[in-house]
């Protein structure tokens, strides 16, 4: 559970227009206390063994206000929002993103702490569910003009050159995360490449101007340059921040992959729609397009990075690619028909202690698969004990501190240990 004195209050102070500068900071003391019983189960977990934990606990800001409407089973599963971004500083995994079905287009933020088996609502969905009122790009549903203007008047402000929600600093409407979610330890923020959340666009500027009796051209003149659908979550302030800064920067469209690369101190970004590979230096707030060689993966890919091999490994369908950091080269390295990797139905991580990449795909026969980059080979490890949840639309990540895969389906949490780390 969250330690006493760690407030959930959301600051409404404006963040700096650029990302905080600085070098690597020491890992801070996590804000959560471990639950001894949960930790004992995790420490006692044998090799090739799965375990279903007790129902996860729920807590957070304004949780009871929204619980019956959206969060009866926690953040709920959200299609194309499977990836959880691990935060080593807090020992938690960050989760966000909008859904086609329930709970719809919530601009909320969550984190899960395995040591206490607790979901925490960090930033509540300030406007509730905008579905049916305001569309993804600021469009208004027919017949809902009055409701849209009221929503914008009450909840949207112009802050640091961006139109954002008043209390949480985020978007009004959201789409998915796909594989475009990661954590940057250099600035201690989660990064989300979020196509469909371009809240600083012309349509919303017109809506904001009308709601506040302003001239559209005056509102547009105050909007800062930047990527309208690239967001950062500041854990200290419990507040979103939209990207602001000069170009060049990539075009954000659907189905992308994004992973922080410790050897570069930057985040690697790849979009299958145009085949471009970029890096983002959050400290300098600067994007750079790489002259990448080779052809990368296709739609709905997922990625994880190996510091040992200095390669990013991406999976999509039955195929596996690598991106060599030293040579900026994409290469297709394996094909295995038992893989059905897809960013809406599976998740992917790297177990550094065993030098193995792990793919969890609960909806198919081979529910966990392991890839050795050393051998360039996929295998299906045994699953002793409890099997994974049956729902293919879940959330998940690899927890390096506890050395387990973690799959969440509502309040149900399943963990799997490939092998203990040998000293």
Protein described:
The chain is mainly beta. The chain has a single domain, classed as 6 Propeller (Neuraminidase), CATH 2.120.10.80. Helix content is about 10%, strand content about 35%. The strands form seven sheets. The chain has a five-stranded mixed β-sheet with strand order 26-1-29-28-27, with no helix packed on it. The chain is globular.
Give keywords:
423 residues, mainly beta, Neuraminidase, 5-stranded mixed beta sheet, 5 helices
**Mean pLDDT across all residues, rounded?**
89
Strand line-up of the largest beta sheet: 26-1-29-28-27
Tell me about the largest β-sheet: 5 strands, mixed
Radius of gyration, CA atoms, in whole angstroms: 21 Å
Structural class: mainly beta
**Low-pLDDT ranges:** 4-25
**What is the tally of beta strands?**
29
The level of helicity is 10-25%
Q: What is the fourth-level CATH superfamily?
A: Kelch-type beta propeller
Q: How many angstroms separate the termini?
A: 30 Å
Count of discrete domains: 1
Query: How would you sum up the global shape?
Result: globular
**Briefly, what CATH class?**
Mainly Beta
Proportion of strand residues = 25-35%
Per CATH, the architecture is 6 Propeller
CATH topology: Neuraminidase
Number of helices, counting only DSSP H or I runs of 4 residues or more: 5
């Amino acid at each position: 559970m969250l330690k006493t004195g760690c407030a959930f209050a959301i600051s409404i102070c404006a963040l700096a227009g650029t990302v905080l500068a600085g070098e690597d900071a020491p890992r801070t003391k996590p804000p959560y206390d471990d639950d001894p019983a949960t930790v004992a189960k995790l420490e006692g977990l044998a090799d090739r063994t799965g375990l279903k934990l007790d129902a996860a606990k729920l807590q957070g800001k304004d949780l009871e206000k929204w619980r019956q409407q959206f969060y009866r089973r926690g953040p709920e599963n959200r299609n194309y929002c499977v990836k959880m971004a691990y935060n080593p500083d807090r020992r938690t995994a960050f989760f966000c993103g909008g859904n086609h079905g329930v709970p719809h287009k919530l601009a909320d933020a969550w984190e899960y702490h395995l040591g206490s088996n607790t979901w925490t609502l960090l930033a509540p969905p300030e406007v509730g569910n905008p579905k049916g009122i305001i569309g993804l790009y600021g469009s208004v549903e027919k017949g809902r003009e009055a409701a849209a203007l009221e929503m914008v008047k009450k909840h949207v402000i112009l802050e640091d050159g961006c139109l954002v929600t008043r209390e949480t600093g985020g978007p009004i409407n959201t789409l998915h995360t796909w594989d475009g979610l990661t954590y940057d330890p250099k600035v201690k923020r989660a990064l989300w490449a979020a196509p469909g959340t371009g809240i600083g666009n012309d349509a919303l500027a017109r809506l904001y101007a009308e709601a506040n009796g302003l001239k559209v051209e005056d509102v547009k003149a105050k909007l800062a340059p930047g990527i309208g659908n690239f967001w950062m979550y500041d854990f200290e302030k419990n507040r979103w921040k939209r990207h602001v800064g000069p170009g060049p920067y990539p075009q954000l469209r659907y189905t992308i992959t994004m992973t922080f690369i410790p050897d570069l101190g930057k985040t690697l970004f790849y979009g299958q729609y145009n085949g471009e590979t970029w890096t983002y230096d959050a400290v300098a707030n600067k994007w750079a397009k790489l002259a990448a060689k080779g052809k990368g993966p296709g739609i709905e890919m997922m990625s994880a990075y190996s510091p040992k091999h200095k390669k990013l490994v991406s999976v999509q369908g039955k195929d596996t690619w690598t991106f060599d950091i030293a040579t900026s080269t994409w290469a297709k390295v394996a094909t295995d028909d038992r893989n059905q990797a897809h960013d809406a139905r599976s998740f992917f991580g790297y177990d550094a202690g065993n030098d193995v990449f792990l793919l969890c795909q609960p909806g198919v026969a081979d529910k966990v698969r392991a890839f050795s980059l050393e051998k360039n080979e996929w295998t299906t490890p045994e699953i002793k004990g409890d099997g994974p949840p049956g729902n293919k639309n879940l959330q998940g990540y690899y927890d390096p501190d506890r050395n387990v895969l973690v799959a969440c389906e509502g309040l149900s949490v399943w963990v799997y240990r490939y092998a203990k780390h040998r000293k």
